[in-house]
Amino acid sequence: MFRWLKRDRHAVSTVMVALDGRQLGDAAAALMASQARMVAAEGDFPVAQEEAVRAASLLLEHAEAWESAALSGTVVEGEAAAGDEGAQVFSDLSVRYEDLPALAEPRRVLVALTVGYRGEVPDLETPVHDAEGLRRALAALLALGHRGGAGLWHLHVVPLDDDPDALLARFPELVDL
């Protein structure tokens, strides 16, 4: 999953969480509003960071809604390579859900938070196998956001219907929690 380089080490990690939309309640709308604010900010990094931190906080506050999760990423040498990797991850995720219909009251919500950073953050470089691993990964995202250690943030919030097979067809890396 991660390639280890010694020199100018940058990593790009994506934490994905599939949630029960019925248990999320108003938090689903708040997550979608965070995504909309990021898009409207058109690359304004402080806004992206603030919204990513807000999304990670909401996910931590609604652990009862977690159904499945995944953590993936790569390590690259240099900031430019990290930016390229972040753009590739953003495109890959976008293609997976671009043809889905808009749902007013989703039964399931997929949230993908991508962060690019310099150095090492073990909790963002270890696969998520259970709820505790997801909790550690989300806490690491929050810590990066609060200390300003990230150089890239992306947020995808995808409202979905209740078909678990369709979810796994689009996001096969998800592991049941």
Number of helices: 6
β-strand number = 5
Overall pLDDT level: 91
Question: In sequence order, what are the helices and strands, one letter per element?
Answer: EHHHEHEHEHE
Q: Domains counted in the coordinates: how many?
A: 1
Which percent band covers the strand fraction? 25-35%
Termini gap? 20 Å
Q: Biggest sheet, strands in spatial order?
A: 4-3-1-2-5
Radius of gyration: 15 Å
What portion of residues is helical?
Answer: 40-55%
Structural class: alpha+beta
Main beta-sheet strand count, sense and barrel state: 5 strands, antiparallel
Overall 3D geometry? globular
Low confidence ranges: none
Note the topology.
Blueprint lengths: L8 E12 H4 L1 H15 L4 H17 L4 E12 L1 H19 L10 E11 L12 H17 L2 E11 L3 H7 L4 E2 L1
Antiparallel strand pairs: 1-2, 1-3, 2-5, 3-4
Helix pairs in contact: 2-3, 3-5
Walkthrough of the structure:
By secondary structure, the protein is of the alpha+beta class. It has one domain (9-176). The chain has six helices and five strands; from the N terminus they run E-H-H-H-E-H-E-H-E-H-E. Helix 2 runs antiparallel to helix 3 (45-61) and helix 3 (45-61) packs antiparallel against helix 5 (131-147). The mean pLDDT is 91.
